[in-house]
């Protein structure tokens, strides 16, 4: 029964991503319960001896986030810590379930995953082509009403661009040859027709890491890890420089949303300097207000210089959790990156591509702590682990 429910859960990812990407936290919670029950039933859910460095690091980050609610100005600070907690728990439980699958169970799971992704992509394509009729119906928006639906396809494109890596590995295990890489190339080309530039950037960055990993997984890991470390080290000085470049009028050649990013990054970098050690508190980005008379020159949805989050994961961690949080995030991320060495030879390029894609999108688009976005990472990573366990049918 648990195996059947888990397979259905894998298959539901595509439709959920296409129609209700903000519903992914519900998927994460339900799958955590199913995975826990499956592990208990199979006897694979026993306690492991010792505590890993990864667990200690993530635990330290959660503890810092929890303590930072004491000085965070956000009314959602506690809720954000709760969301971080159940996503971390889900990653541990669903990840353990995915790696404990035998080849037959994994075949069934990825079969459902591929079918679901195909269905979700088809539904999303029809939605995009006909101005989102299902979303209009669900939100009771009249057909003749001009409605800004840009965030709908952007969220879906972002989640699908993460799930594409698990789908690529699943297809590779089933078909072999160039099926997996071909899927990724098709997804990248298709993303260029959509409004989400961050999804395209993520897929392109992922393909670069994937290509390098096919030649040398070691050098791909080093390259991605180098970008990660450089991003955290240089985030604040580059953010300050971005703001100065914009103020000097040297960024007029950029499109408006890119100039808006530079403005946000410049302001966020200055706010980091106000609390460099422990930050302004978890989720503080949405609550920090500019000084009187400081308003955005490029914002479309809000006039704030810091709309909900800095649209840059490096700066968001610095801003909210300071040097302490940035150090913990770097260590946890590098440990996760290093863990890709334990994957099979075929799986490593897909895992490194996913890591690079997620890193690129996390620093250009959504807030790190948005529950649906964290759940998207969780889903992509755990489904990739499940795909690795599948039998190779070539």
UniProtKB/TrEMBL annotation:
Coiled-coil regions listed: none
Gene Ontology MF term list: ligase activity
The species this protein was found in: Azospirillum oleiclasticum
Transmembrane segments annotated in the record for this chain: 51-71, 77-98, 110-130, 178-195, 201-219, 226-246, 315-337, 349-366
Protein keywords: Ligase, Membrane, Transmembrane, Transmembrane helix
Compartment(s) where it occurs, according to its Swiss-Prot or TrEMBL record: Membrane
Membrane-topology annotation of the record: Multi-pass membrane protein
InterPro entries registered for this protein in UniProt: O-antigen_ligase-rel_domated, WaaL-like
Keyword Transmembrane helix: yes
Pfam families for this protein: Wzy_C
Name of this chain's protein: O-antigen ligase family protein
O-antigen ligase-related domain ranges (all copies): 183-329
